[in-house]
Design a protein that fits this description.
alpha/beta, 34% helix, 10 helices, 7 strands, single chain, 9% strand, seven-stranded parallel beta sheet, Beta_cellobiohydrolase_sf, Glucanase, TIM Barrel
Length: 338
């Protein structure tokens, strides 16, 4: 099943803008924030606490509705605001390295792990709702390098490039561009994993997209899965957790026991059965929040259930009233949380 992911926009409603590839500022170098040691960490995600961003869009909405007297709606919105969600880095707005550093610093001070989603691969989303990405391979390497430098010395979880592998398997790119993409993913995994505190999970689509685990496994090997911490499933999708676990277990067998994480942010009612095409994945009605984020899943191979997709951010302007991909949509968030 073809599906696309969100494109986050800059600003207060998205707690994770990205800047053009730039070095950490001189002031940051002179006064680095204290970083928690990674030396004693065994590199396992299972059992770790996840960071809740107190300034995310859902938290802002809670405060706005409380101030307006919408106390019941604010209480419902807390079902999103009070849970850990990923912070997406998806464009080149100024200050991305500093924001990444601030995120991991704040999480470290809280004794929790932040989840970062990197979503800036060239030719991203194959001209879909979230089209964009870095202008060139060189620009992408610089961008990843700046982020890796920003989070170095801190502990974090990175979900790497939703869509990138699955779309390539489905023939989104020509042979030359596909080879370049796999090389960029391998580079990103290698650079990020050079920091002993960074866990990297390469996106592997969902059970209904690339249905043959052997086919996905071959692509993941080209993308550097052997150097990663594992793979990620169901990012921004709605497939049921049990289906993802079955598929992930089969895929893990193809990869020698590789672990994985599952995005459960919006799969509480499973996939939509409305019409055809985009409405299966793009703001489908009648969906609800899935299992709360946790690193204690009860499955040996499943390191965590994560909310990688931030509930309440639009999948695209694909239905009446829906804003562009990545923009906060309080009405849809409230429906998910209700």
């Amino acid at each position: 099943m073809k599906r696309r992911y969100v494109l986050l926009t800059a600003g207060a409603l998205v707690a994770a803008g990205i800047a053009a590839p730039v070095a950490i500022s001189a002031s940051e170098k002179k006064s680095p924030a204290p970083a928690p040691s990674t030396e004693a960490w065994d590199g396992r995600l299972t059992g770790q606490g996840l960071y809740v961003d107190p300034n995310g869009a859902a938290a802002d909405q809670v405060r706005a509705w409380e101030a307006a007297g919408r106390t019941r709606d604010a209480a419902i919105m807390r079902r999103i605001a009070d849970r850990p969600t990923a912070t997406w880095f998806a464009d080149e707005s100024t200050g991305y390295a500093a924001r990444a550093r601030q995120l991991v610093t704040d999480a470290g001070r809280a004794g929790k792990l932040p989840v970062l989603t990197l979503y800036h691969i060239p030719n991203r989303d194959c001209s879909g709702h979230s089209a964009g990405g870095a202008a060139s391979a060189v620009a992408y390497r610089q961008w990843v390098g700046a982020l890796a430098t920003a989070i170095r010395g801190h502990r974090s979880v990175v979900v790497l490039e939703p869509d990138a592998v699955a779309q390539t398997v489905r023939g989104c790119l020509n042979a030359k561009a596909a080879t370049e993409r796999f090389g960029l993913l391998l580079h990103a995994v290698t650079v990020l994993r050079a920091n002993p505190g960074t866990l990297v999970y390469v996106d592997a689509g969902n059970p209904t997209w690339i249905r043959k685990p052997a086919q996905m496994a071959a692509a993941l090997r080209r993308a550097g899965i052997q150097r990663a911490s594992g793979f990620a499933l169901n990012v921004a999708n709605f497939e049921r957790t049990a289906d993802n676990v079955r598929y992930g277990t089969a895929l893990s067998r193809q990869l020698g026991g590789t672990h994985f994480v599952v995005d459960t942010s919006r799969n509480g009612n499973g996939p939509a059965k409305v019409g055809a095409g985009d409405r299966h994945w793009c703001n489908p009605p009648g969906r609800k929040l899935g299992e709360a984020p946790t690193t204690r899943t009860g499955h040996t191979l499943v390191d965590a259930y994560l909310w990688v997709k931030r509930p309440g951010e639009s999948d695209g302007a694909c239905s009446a009233g829906a804003p562009p991909a990545g923009q906060w949509w309080p009405e849809y968030a409230l429906a998910l949380a209700s």
